[in-house]
Amino acid sequence: MSVSDLFQPLTLLHGPPMRNRFMLAPLTNQQSGYDGTASEYDQQWMEQLAQGGYALIQTCATTVEAGGIAFARQLGIHSDAHLPGLTRIATTIRDGGGLSAVQLHHAGHRANPIFGGIPAPASSYTVPGVRAIPTEVVERIRDSFITAAKRAQMAGFDGVAVHGAFGWILSEFLSPELNDRRDRYGGSMENRARLTMEVIEGIRRACGPDFQIGWRLSIERYGLQLDELRELTAEIFNRELIDYLDLALWDSAQVVREGTFRGKSMLSVFTSLPRKGVRVGAAGKIMSAHRAARLLDEGCDFALIARAGILQRDFPLQVMADPRYESPTLPVTAAYLRRGGLSERFINHLRGWPSFVLPGSL
């Protein structure tokens, strides 16, 4: 397909269509208030993105419980006190012509006590000295995801994206390595997937037929099994439980190195599934117009823009203006990011990423 195909609209099972094939990936930026309240820096960041031509913009990972926090200054949706700031963000995105989603997040065993997090491991051996959370706590966290989705709807967002990647709680429960439970949330793949399924199904019941639901899935690390995840995804597609799958890959072009699908592209493992009306997109080193267009050739419906969107907030508009557009080469100086409008809080966060900000740059 050509770059121009990236600017074709895309219908979703629920709610309004995407105006093109560009979705902003959820990007941790650590610039909210310590209580999770959206700050002026969050608002400025969203104002830049809202004018950037994206079809759908996801927030950063947003805490569904105060104890599920992973990062300092992480955005929250676990309290009604967060609604005014979230409402401003949703309004800003809508005014820019895009759809909006809050990424719902709970860190699970990776919750950070330094920032008030309370580790909530699936198993007793994951975090030294911390026992597995009991069934009633699993159910409470499930309900917190659903309540947070209702808050997102109240704030005016078009939907939510359920964070099921990177070893956070939903991903953790899916992993046979991190989940040795003996209740209905452990053991078989069906049981380990139960928390994810109950969250998604509960959000649909609570938020109704016009609300959009995305699901972020990662495959690497944390003991996750590719064959199992493909089987689960096939069921979710077949039942049309979500509007879109967000495949969070380190590299969207990566190849499976072992097992049943050895030698195949990671994308093809999922894009080859019958998906009915569910849409599929991927993130992972999409730094040019050419690579974004190639994703459509490889079976994706849309492209998730991450680092390229930080470097150039209006990446879709850059691609529209220049079908040969390529992102600036990393690393960049802090001054470059500052000139582009990033806050010092965001820049300091990026200094912790490998090879993003030039060491020692001011």
Which key terms come to mind for this protein?
8-stranded parallel barrel; 8 strands; alpha/beta; 13 helices; 362 residues; TIM Barrel
Provide an overview of this structure.
By secondary structure, this protein is α/β, with parallel strands linked by helices. It has one domain: Alpha-Beta Barrel (TIM Barrel). It has an eight-stranded parallel β-barrel, surrounded by four helices. Strand 6, helix 8 and strand 7 form a beta-alpha-beta unit. The longest helix is centred in the middle third of the chain and has 21 residues. It is globular. It starts with 21 loop residues before the first strand and ends in a 12-residue tail after the last helix. Keywords: Flavoprotein, Oxidoreductase. GO terms for molecular function: FMN binding; oxidoreductase activity. This is 2,4-dienoyl-CoA reductase-like NADH-dependent reductase (Old Yellow Enzyme family).
Topology:
Blueprint: E1 22-24, H1 40-50, E2 56-63, H2 83-95, E3 99-105, H3 135-155, E4 159-164, H4 169-174, H5 189-192, H6 194-207, E5 212-217, H7 226-238, E6 244-248, H8 266-271, E7 279-283, H9 289-297, E8 302-305, H10 307-311, H11 315-321, H12 334-339, H13 344-350
Parallel strand pairs: 1-2, 1-8, 2-3, 3-4, 4-5, 5-6, 6-7, 7-8
Helix pairs in contact: 1-2, 2-3, 3-6
InterPro entries: Aldolase_TIM, NADH_flavin_oxidoreductase, OxRdtase_FMN_N
Pfam family, one: Oxidored_FMN
Domain NADH:flavin oxidoreductase/NADH oxidase N-terminal: 5-316
